[in-house]
Design goal:
Number of helices: 1
Largest sheet: 4 strands, antiparallel
Low-confidence stretches: 148-193
Helix content: under 10%
Strand content: 35-45%
Strand order of the largest sheet: 1-2-3-4
Length: about 190
């Protein structure tokens, strides 16, 4: 039993079907008429690309700028990536040792930041939240500080202290992570109050 369907997506022109304990790639879809019964049918090819590792938290399915998929498979599987052929873990000892401290992994969230090439894995807690960051440039995980109501994330473990300014939590805004204010609007850091 692969569990319930926890995520659907598109991966390189095919359907990515994620279950709690398996990942499938669905291709094909040639429509044909069954002459004998006069009932049209669709021929799909379901191919398992992972058995035993699936998508535990539905809102952790993300895609990088190269078209690879990433997801969180629970505390035992950690975070995985797939190119549609194989599934491999990108979980390191830091992340694996910390995953069990969070009680309900179903509420985990993730996002991919293309400008910084980072995968953010967030676990809400009763007070605020906790997150981990995978840096695609270095291949390393970092543990971030909590997210305050201001929406500011700090990442000191990645070297220099970097602040990613965002909108207040729950507003659904699009954070300007570069600080260069490309949209031409007032970013509020002109020194005036």
């Amino acid at each position: 039993n692969d569990g319930a369907i926890t995520g659907l997506g598109v991966l390189r022109g095919n359907l990515l079907a994620c279950y709690q304990k398996a990942i499938f790639l669905v291709s094909g879809g040639s429509f044909a008429d069954n002459v004998e019964n006069q009932v049209p049918y669709v021929d799909f090819n379901w191919r398992a690309i992972s058995q035993g590792i699936g998508l535990f938290a539905p809102e952790t399915l993300c895609y990088d700028s190269d078209g690879n998929a990433y997801g969180f498979g629970g505390a035992s599987a950690g975070v995985w990536t797939t190119d549609g052929v194989t599934v491999k873990s990108i979980t390191d000892p830091l992340l694996r040792s910390r995953l069990n401290q969070f009680k309900d992994h179903h509420f985990a969230r993730a996002a991919y930041e293309p400008k910084l090439r980072r995968y953010y894995l967030f676990f809400p807690t009763s007070s605020d939240g906790h997150f981990f960051v995978f840096d695609f440039e270095t291949g390393d995980w970092a543990e971030g500080n909590h997210i305050e109501a201001t929406g500011i994330l700090t990442l000191p473990p990645l070297g220099a202290s970097v602040a990613v300014e965002g909108t207040p939590a729950g507003t659904g805004g699009d954070p300007d992570t570069t600080g260069d204010d490309e949209d031409g609007g007032d970013d509020g850091d002109d020194g005036e109050e």
